[in-house]
Amino acid sequence: MKLARFAIVCVLASAVFPLISQAQVPVFEFDKAKSSIGFDVKASVEIAGKFDKWDAKITFTSADPTTGVLDIEAQAASVNTGSGMKDGKLKGKDFFDAEHNPLISFKSTKIVQTGPNTFDIPGTFTIRGVSKPETLSLTVSGIGTGQGEVKGIMAFDRKQYGMNSGIPFIKIADRVEVEVDLWGKRVSGPPLDLKK
After folding, report:
1. Domains, the chain, ordered by start
2. What tens digit of pLDDT does each residue of 139-169 get?
3. Alpha-carbon gap, residue 96 to 102, rounded angstroms
4. Which positions fall inside the Lipid/polyisoprenoid-binding YceI-like domain (predicted)?
């Protein structure tokens, strides 16, 4: 009988303690209506746009911001430059190759606080099925309020990802800047413990 009671206590404890530990970590949600994932590349004709379909999440294992993991995924076929001709070219095999590689993603490997409200986030960037290490540099506003904006840029060389072609009559630079603008709020857990 004592053994059965001990087993019940263990089961109840395992059910309750994860809830307690989850409540002790900051949980944030991003508002897609106020957020965007976009890009810009220098060219003789403007080539800039955003992705209409994307998802981003950040998870923490403690109130220390350096324990966070940032995941961003954009659907390549949702590219929107405001020009159907440009969108079609970017979705095609010479650029995003959206048919065979539908997702463009970034997954952080660590978060490094570089100032009171700035962070460098090294991670793995994947486009066209090619993955390479890149760094997203972010500035965070609204620290201590429980809500705010996360803005940043990650630059990459398109030719390193197999985007070697151009567009007829348009000169395109190799450097592409991915622009992240996320508005979020803490929905549960303690505030982040920013030490700098």
Report:
1. 26-188 (2.40.128.110)
2. 999 877 889 999 999 999 999 999 988 777 7
3. 8
4. 27-185
